[in-house]
From TrEMBL:
It is a multi-pass membrane protein. Residues 101-380 form the NADH:quinone oxidoreductase/Mrp antiporter transmembrane domain. Keywords: Membrane, Transmembrane, Transmembrane helix. It comes from Kribbella ginsengisoli. This is NADH-quinone oxidoreductase subunit L. The chain crosses the membrane at residues 54-74, 81-99, 105-126, 138-160, 172-191, 212-233, 245-265, 270-290, 310-333, 345-366, 386-406, 448-466, 472-492, 568-587. The keyword Transmembrane applies. InterPro entries: ND/Mrp_TM, NU5C-like, Proton_antipo_N. It is found in: Endomembrane system; Membrane. Residues 42-79 form the NADH-Ubiquinone oxidoreductase (complex I) chain 5 N-terminal domain. It comes from the Bacteria.
Amino acid sequence: MIATAWRVIGVGFSLLVLLTAGLLYGVDPQQERFGGVFLSRDVYLSYGVRTDDLTVFMLAIVGVVSLCVQVYSIAYVHERVASYTALVTLFTASMVTVVVSDSLFLLLIGWELMGACSYLLIGHYWERRDARSGAMKAFLMTRLGDVGFLFGIFVLGLGYKTFTLSELGDRQISPGLLTTGTLLILVGIVGKSAQVPLQTWLPDAMPGPSPVSALIHAATMVAAGVFLIARLYDVFAAAETTFTVLAVIACVTMLFAAFCAMAAVEVKRVLAWSTVSQLAIMFAGLSLGTHEGRHAALFHLLTHAAFKGLLFLCAGVLLHQVGSAAFVVLRRYTRRGALRKRMPVTFITMTIGLAALAGVPGFAGFFSKDSVIEAAWEHARDGSTIGWVVLVSVCLTAALTAFYCVRLWLWVFFRTPALAGALGAFEDDDPMADLEEPDTAKLRDGSWLMLAPLVLLAVGAIGLGYTDGVHLKWPIALVTTVLGLFGALPAYSLWQRGADPRPVVLEREFGVDSAYQRVFAVPVQWLAKLAVGGDRDVIGGYVRGAGRAGVLASAGFRRLQTGNVQTYLTAAVIGAVALAILAGVIGS
């Protein structure tokens, strides 16, 4: 009964967010303040909310994706439902707080609540070791970035003499403070949105429930960084150094994550690295510092919310039916194309999601990706080095994205011709050959509560590309289509030959985790041991020595208390004689 009540509350809140976005659509931009305190004679801290086009845009994304996740979770989550629904609802409310806030400190409250909720949701299956470690890793790495975020809030707020978002760009601030403040804010954004060098937490957060992954990757948390830069775009645009740093981080991240996705062997891990890469494309668009770049980044954020939410929910259906999202397990079903035949709705919707992610012409991702490339091309033609770097990086990433999307699609849903023709030889090399042949008769699509959100998001993954109007530049569209083919054809060739080579450097994701372990974790462990040893052996030694000295002194004084009067008189006489002798010696 309690679980049902929480589910109703969760779905109701998601509908409320969506309804709020609809009611605010077309309303003139305005700000409302409530409460406040003077931090100094010139600085006034107030809490306020803001309504404008960007607010409505983000509320619509959060509302739709959250509603799909809440409905989907009714059929998906069967353990600790009450706590799960409460946390998802609070998670959504935290993102709404970030979206509507017009105060840096109110935004910080929502920002930190998202981090706390993500820790608890990623670790929902706390009995699993990988879930616990993934939750802890996400918490520590995002908190590390949030330290810079907090200092950035103080630098900008005190520099502008206001903590109100809508007033930051209207006042004067020294260039040094502006650059310092925006760079510190960028540190928090890098941590929250899993960009290099704080990117490794997001793939390791995959042991959490698939609906949680969809919510984190599509509409909340990692998308909050893109939203915040778009909200403070005038402030960031005035700090050219910050945008240069952002462009470098974004270009490195999109290529790094795309290469990692090419070698990943778990469906959700491929999608996680894909999220890191696609977010970097959005940041690259923002780093151009132009209106076209900002518009393209937000357009890609919109389409990404649809197809990435769809893909994670489809992965959840696979997990629900197969029990594992690893290729090595799914392969046993795909020898006969069982997943495609027994789960047609999941197959069709996931195909749509992967097509949108890969940028297949006609799908939403094609239009939004091309808008970023077009903005970079226009900026590059003006002689901007950043424009050229972004242009080349996004084009290369588009080809790599097509490769891992086709690879994922073929290996999950189709039997490999080479393996089907030599099944006996494959059985000899198959590490799972001794397992019983899976019962494909038990495979089926999920309930309508799971399929309805898939269909809705699949419609968005196609139709949202046309919401901005079709303003294609055919040369750019032709180039990106050719790049997609260059990425897809090698993936198809490898699949047809039954080969799935994964270079060691890619399979280990460039060894970043092990490098972090050696450079950061090991020294911290040694320092911790040193601190414990110093506390135990040095400080504790002094404390224990003082205690023992007191015990020995008290024991000595206790021995003097014999209770014999003659002994006391003798000691008194001896003392008096000794004092007399001492006085005589001193007097002479």
